[in-house]
């Protein structure tokens, strides 16, 4: 029975991996978009992490995770005789499937390795496989999702090193640990926080077998040198020499640490109380499993790893729930289910409802129209201006070369009056073709507004059919889109806010025109 259930949960995971929800802009701008610009001719937009004087993001972990699959895909595309570039949406879905495979193979495999008891292992695997975090965050291209896998396999390697009595096997595990340890640090500087307590187990082993520590350190140093070389070559405008690597290296983890220890820098991203992770983010990720963490914990190296990670991350004042992704499989594999049958049934029902609700919300509806919206914009022959209002930043690399003629305006928080001013400046003149079905596509220029249907501020301007002012023609709508950043509990109240955001869900594209003297464009 449990095998059939596990197979069903794998299909659920795959279904969510192939759903176009958009959990956070970082899943594009800190990963695939950076490498896509290196391999393909897609237009890309580098965020501040990559453009500052002291860049804080490394491209080293991006190459094996995203670069190699893109290179393979490009090789297959050319090998099959195709001309031009691969459609970026094909690359997007390939990476989603890759993240599903990595989650399915590496995360679940690590749980099998870390949990020794067959009965407890079965429960742990099922809990991880049925978590909405596994369905959604782990199948998206987050550095946090990669960190989850690196933490889990670091624990596996530590366990193998400590328990293995064969010198050769121990040396191999130590070498791999040195490599992925450096990889983890360049991926996210928070990675060592999860190994503070588990790493203590290695001290007696290294004292007894110093050769294991030597090979781990050597592997780590070689990996770090390669990482610094790649980052330096990426960020310096001129060709890099060996002298550059020693005199002016770009060490992104060091820059990242320097940036994040300054409260004034973190204030730009939002400050949280020290208990944000413990009292808000953990329950948000675990739901009813958070109760088991308090009432029925199973003390293990995995739990100690999660505790050390939560403790260190709570020191920093900027605390997002996704920062704790590595703790989810560690905690879910370190709790015990209720033994009382009735309590077990109640807990199971609550667990299923919690994950089904959060899975549908985060895996299907959360900003779900942005990726389909970019695909729509890439296919509009007349589009030259696109305004994205009250949405996450759209990934421009999905425009499939349309950026040569299309300018994307990311105006998420712009006041409505200012938006209308900018639309009035860039809108094309209303012509007879604009009033006929699909005839507007033959125009040479066109201005579009992409905004959630829940943005009621713009409602009074939509019905305008007169001679003056802007005219909005709805040309596309994607229903599975929710904008959770547009909640206004204080002004609208709870019920009215939910009625607006949920009842009027969807992302809409309007083609915007204006009246001009004589019908001529300016």
TrEMBL record:
Membrane-spanning ranges: 58-77, 89-106, 176-200, 212-236, 346-365
Subcellular compartments: Endoplasmic reticulum membrane
Keyword list, A-Z: Endoplasmic reticulum, Glycosyltransferase, GPI-anchor biosynthesis, Membrane, Signal, Transferase, Transmembrane, Transmembrane helix
E.C. number(s) listed in UniProt: 2.4.1.-
Keyword Membrane annotated: yes
GO BP annotations listed: GPI anchor biosynthetic process
Top-level taxon in the UniProt lineage: Eukaryota
One cellular-component annotation, GO: endoplasmic reticulum membrane
Pathway note: Glycolipid biosynthesis; glycosylphosphatidylinositol-anchor biosynthesis
UniProt keyword DNA-binding, yes or no: no
Any GO MF annotation of the entry: alpha-1,2-mannosyltransferase activity
Topology in the lipid bilayer: Multi-pass membrane protein
Name of the molecule in the record: Mannosyltransferase
Gene source species: Sodiomyces alkalinus (strain CBS 110278 / VKM F-3762 / F11) (Alkaliphilic filamentous fungus)
Phylogenetic classification of the source organism: Eukaryota, Fungi, Dikarya, Ascomycota, Pezizomycotina
């Amino acid at each position: 029975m449990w095998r059939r259930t596990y197979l069903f949960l794998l299909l659920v995971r795959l279904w969510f991996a192939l759903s176009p929800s958009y959990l956070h802009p970082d899943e594009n701008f800190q990963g695939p978009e950076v490498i896509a610009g290196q391999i393909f001719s897609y237009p890309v937009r580098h965020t501040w992490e990559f453009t500052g004087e002291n860049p804080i993001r490394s491209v080293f972990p991006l190459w094996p995770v995203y670069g190699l699959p893109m290179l393979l895909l490009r090789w297959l595309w050319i090998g099959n005789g195709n001309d031009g570039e691969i459609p970026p949406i094909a690359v997007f879905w390939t990476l989603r499937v890759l993240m599903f495979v990595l989650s399915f193979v590496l995360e679940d495999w690590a749980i099998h390795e870390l949990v020794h008891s067959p009965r407890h292992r079965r429960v742990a695997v099922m809990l991880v496989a049925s978590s909405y975090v596994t369905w959604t965050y782990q199948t998206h291209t987050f550095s946090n999702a990669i960190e989850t896998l690196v933490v889990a396999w670091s624990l596996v390697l530590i366990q193998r090193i400590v328990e293995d009595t064969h010198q050769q096997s121990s040396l191999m595990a130590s070498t791999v640990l040195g490599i992925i340890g450096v990889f983890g640090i360049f991926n996210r500087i928070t990675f060592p926080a999860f190994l503070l307590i588990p790493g203590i187990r290695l001290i007696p082993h290294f004292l007894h077998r110093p050769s294991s520590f030597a090979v781990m350190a050597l592997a780590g140093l070689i990996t770090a040198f390669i990482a610094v070389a790649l980052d330096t070559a990426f960020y310096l405008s001129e060709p890099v020499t060996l002298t550059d690597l020693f005199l002016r290296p770009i060490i992104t983890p060091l820059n990242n640490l320097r940036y994040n220890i300054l409260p004034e820098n973190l204030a730009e991203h939002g400050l949280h109380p020290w208990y944000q992770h413990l009292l808000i983010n953990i329950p948000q990720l675990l739901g009813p499993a958070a109760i088991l963490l308090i009432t029925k914990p199973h003390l293990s190296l995995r739990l100690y790893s999660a505790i050390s990670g939560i403790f260190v991350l709570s020191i920093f004042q900027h605390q997002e729930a996704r920062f704790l992704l590595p703790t989810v499989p560690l905690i879910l594999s370190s709790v015990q289910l209720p033994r009382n049958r009735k309590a077990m049934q109640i807990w199971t029902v609550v667990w299923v409802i919690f994950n089904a609700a959060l899975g549908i919300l985060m895996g299907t509806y959360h900003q779900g129209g942005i990726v389909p919206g970019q695909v729509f914009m890439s296919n509009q022959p007349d589009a030259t201006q696109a305004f994205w209002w009250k949405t996450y930043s759209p990934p421009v690399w999905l425009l499939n070369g349309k950026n040569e003629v299309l300018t994307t305006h990311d105006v998420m928080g712009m006041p409505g009056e200012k938006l209308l001013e900018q639309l009035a400046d860039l809108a094309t003149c209303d012509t007879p073709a604009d009033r006929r079905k699909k005839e507007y596509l033959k125009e040479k220029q066109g201005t579009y507004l992409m905004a959630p249907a829940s943005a009621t501020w713009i409602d009074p301007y939509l019905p305008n059919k007169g001679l003056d002012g802007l005219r909005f023609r709805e040309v596309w709508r994607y229903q599975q889109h929710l904008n959770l950043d547009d909640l206004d509990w204080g002004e609208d109240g709870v019920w009215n806010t939910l009625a607006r955001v949920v009842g009027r869900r969807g992302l809409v594209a309007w083609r915007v025109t204006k009246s001009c003297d004589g019908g001529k464009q300016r």
